[in-house]
Amino acid sequence: MDIDTLEDLAKELKNDENENVLALFEEYAKINNIKEEELEQILSKKYDCFKCESCDKFYCYDEYSFFDEKCIYCCDTDSDAEDEEY
Ligand SMILES: [Zn+2]
To answer: Which top-rank group of organisms is this from (predicted)?
Structure first.
């Protein structure tokens, strides 16, 4: 698939049919010479695309908990993975 803009990227990242969204994200950052942290911020601020720190997937605002920095699904399924920070 072709990803030309951040809007495209956000769309692809939130697409359930894409399996390796983290790779997409990393590749975009690399190609465009943006730090991953920076890219994450841009996506969350402008494109309604939030990275879950727990399952490494991307969600829109409605499916993401700022407080936990996780998607609502990870918050629901109790947190054994809580200590897996990186
Ligand atoms: Zn999650």
So the answer is: Bacteria
| The model's pTM | 0.82
| 73 is a domain residue | yes
Give pLDDT tens digits for 32-63: 999 999 999 999 999 999 999 999 999 999 99
Residues in the 5 Å CB sphere of ion ligand 1 = 52, 54-55, 71, 74
The residues near 67 (Cβ < 8 Å, ≥ 6 apart) are: none
Say if 83 falls within a structural domain.
Answer: no
Centre of ligand 1 to C-alpha 67, Å, is 13
Give the C-alpha separation, 76 to 71, whole Å. 9
**Does residue 61 sit within a domain?**
yes
Residue 32 within a domain? yes
Number of domains in the chain: 1
